[in-house]
Amino acid sequence: MSTDVSAPQGRSRLDVTPPTRVGGVARVSALYSRHREIAAILISVLLFIYFLARSGSLFLGSNVATLGQYVAPIAILAVGEAMLLICGEIDLSSGNVYALSPFIVMYLNQDHLPVILATVLAILISAFIGLVNGLITVYLHVPSFVTTLGMSFLLLGIVLVLTNGATGTPPGGSLYADIMGGGNWSELIWAGCIVVVFAYLLKWTRFGTYTFAVGGNLNAAREASINVARIKIWNFVLMGALAGLTGILDGVRIAALDPTSGGTAIMFSAVAAAVIGGTSLVGGSGSVIGAFFGACFLETLYDGFTLEGVSQFDFDIIIGAAILIAMIVNIRFQRLRVGRSFEELEPEGDEA
Amino acid sequence: MTSESSGQSRISRRQLLGSAALAGGGLAVGSALGGISPAFAAAPRAVSNPYPSHPTWTFTLVNHVTTSEFFVPTRYGAQDACDLFGCQYQWVGSVNSIVSEMVDAFNVAIDAKVDGIGVPVIDPNAFIAPTNRALAAGIPVIAYNTAAPTTTADKNLQMCYIGQSLFQAGELMGQQILDKLDKGRIVVFNPTPGSLNLQARTNGINDVIKASGKPITIDNIASAATLAEAVAAVKAYYAGHPDVVGMFCVDTLTMVGIIEVMQAHNLKGKIVTGCFDTIPQVVSGITSGYVDFTIYQQPYLQGFLPILELFLFKLSGGLNIPSSVETGLSLITKANIGQFAKYTDRYEGSSAAEKIIPMSGPISVSAGDYPPTQLS
């Protein structure tokens, strides 16, 4: 191993000195430690190359747009879940907000509200549902897992009662449809913009820093006068709004509103994407860019294997194995990172 | 203490290489798994058939309940057809009738340039654009098991429909109810009210009974798509309506709940019951007298015929146009349950073995027993 030759003598034991002579290994591991999303980007690229090798030109061409349509909804939901996971919470009801919100647009539009206004209102209502989740979790001290679980059943029931189980048709003209998910690329563009905005939010704003702090060490954050309640509740609100938006985008894309769509399946995919992207389930660390690439990895699996002609039953074996392999690889990189920070905190070795 | 001083990463080259090896190993395993996967899918056996040799054509059957017991014989039928003609099929879609998953799978099949696609049209609008896209790409699309509703029939351009006429199946059930009952309260259970295929049956039942003018009250009640919940729904209904004279369902799973209620309250012979399809519980229910009739839609043919038609279309460059087939207005009662009850076989999905089911004696056909010879 390379040794640090430039450490000055008599340095305080509390100094934390970055490596001054950086060998190749240390440089790579430093990169991984600063950017949690690297592992997710790497496995996504590898998977892409794998399918390219297996399916050749079929994997490109029109399939890229189809792949984008697989990835976009999961990516948007994963961004919201990543934010919540980072601050130490979770939202199990996001899939049901996803199912409800396009129906709100449809019903409001049937009551002669212009479709744009109906869309904005539906997203606001979804954000309000997030607010309720946040208030119950923070002020009534119900663990968010339980709060949002109860909310998910409540919302599922509301959707079924409102629709009587029948499917619906999203409103809006062709321009609305093109922008709100109907075009080949529009949902992916939405996802890309949302990832960029939230990555900025997390990395460059105080809100983002506080989100990390609240999830990393709740008591220390409180001691540091961070308004923990407000941070958490805002993250719930953002998750609700994102889930509402995603539901509308997907409903317009398929040109059909389905009361049984979304639900726990899509929520689990979103959480899995966030975790594969490097967000810790216990809070305090994560990345929305990683969440996006986690979604890419997950959905490329579905798209790529369907393209190859794999049938449903074999599918699940392969998806399960692939997720396990990806997560084992991911965790290995994460453990490298933890190892490094441990090293930084240790007192210096025996210098004379 | 090692010779590394503080601030230097303790990550050894060995650790990093180990992780890289793991990633590489993961990729290798992934390749191996991927390599296995085409073998899981139907690898065509060498067969002798009159047609010239051709590349292995792939047909994608999209489905809304891919893991449903009902479609087990459908998959056997598709498999047998593929083996006969040297093709392979892909079975994808959604486990829980989630339309977006079906549309996604449909789109990927188009991107994969498969040779034909079959889809149950469980939503009036969602499959219009994907079908048009497939047709524009030169891929034939047929509908099976569930047809597009009349409201969007002019926009849904699937080339034919192979399956049961759902509204008429409901009418057939309604007619059976009128034959057996003159008055009283009946219940018709629907696990997914509003959903295209089952709602059409419910509507058929209601229309026929209302048109007859008989004083029969119909309770249209929602059961559920899973067995446990369906049973609970039936029990709850009966607890509130013990005066019911007939219990029917437009699916097959709810009948299991109805049989349970009949056993619990000793109702055999006292109420009239009927359902659809022939899962083993229904077959034994008919034999033992709990179920008066069921309407059969031949799930094996719903897998075999789509592959057959898509193959012939492909083989003939479009000269053999896919034709609609009514697979399912067969009334099964105790009189003709014999063959169903006697054998476990590939056509009912109860056995995977290929065998010839023996048949003897005259074939009794009454009007309305078999699918009509005129397609309406």
Explain what you see.
The complex is a heterodimer of chains A (352) and B (376). Chain A has 352 residues and is mainly α. Chain A has a domain at 72-289. Chain A has helices at residues 24-34, 38-55, 62-86, 94-110, 115-139, 144-163, 174-182, 186-204, 206-216, 218-223, 228-254, 263-276, 288-308, 312-345. In chain A, helix 2 (38-55) runs parallel beside helix 13 (288-308), helix 4 (94-110) runs antiparallel to helix 5 and helix 9 packs across helix 11 (228-254). With 376 residues, chain B is of the alpha/beta class. Chain B has two domains: 58-164 and 299-323, Rossmann fold (3-Layer(aba) Sandwich); 166-296 and 329-342, Rossmann fold (3-Layer(aba) Sandwich), CATH 3.40.50.2300. Helices cover 41% and strands 15% of the residues of chain B. Chain B has eleven helices and twelve strands. The radius of gyration of chain B is 25 Å and the shape is globular. Chain B starts with 12 loop residues before the first helix and ends in a 34-residue tail after the last helix. The interface between A and B is large, with 79 and 71 residues.
